[in-house]
Amino acid sequence: MSDMVVVYELGKPVTARSSRDASGDEQRPVRRVHAAPTAPGEPAATGPRTLCGKDTFAMETARGKPAEHPGAPWYPRSTRPWSAPTAMP
């Protein structure tokens, strides 16, 4: 079986403004969190589709690796509300 990676499906850019800087930076919020296999023969690259069938082209790869401990979730705990329903335990 191939390794797995966590990828983020991002939303539309929003402008974040700080009190010190009026210009603001555009940020793309996380819409959903998905699991995807790595690309065949390239363990550092994400495969073309998530486990639920979405294209990974425009998704951002999360840092780190999914949990390797039995019973632990595959997604970062802080992203549970956005985890893809078809892949949640």
Describe this structure in words.
There is one protein chain. By secondary structure, this protein is mainly beta. The chain has one domain. The chain is about 0% helix and about 35% strand. It has strands at about 5-10, 15, 25, 30-40, 40-45, 60. The strands form 2 sheets. Strands 5-4-1-6 form a 4-stranded antiparallel beta sheet, with no helix packed on it. It has a two-stranded antiparallel sheet with strand order 2-3. β2 (about 15) and β3 (about 25) form a beta hairpin.
Q: What is the element layout, followed by pairings?
A:
Blueprint: E1 4-10, E2 14-16, E3 25-27, E4 30-39, E5 42-46, E6 60-61
Antiparallel strand pairs: 1-4, 1-6, 2-3, 4-5
Q: What's the arrangement of strands in the largest beta sheet?
A: 5-4-1-6
Write down how many β-strands occur, each being a DSSP E stretch of 2 or more residues: 6
- Compute the number of helices: 0
- Structural category is mainly beta
Please give the alpha-carbon distance between the first and last residues: 19 Å
What is the radius of gyration? 15 Å
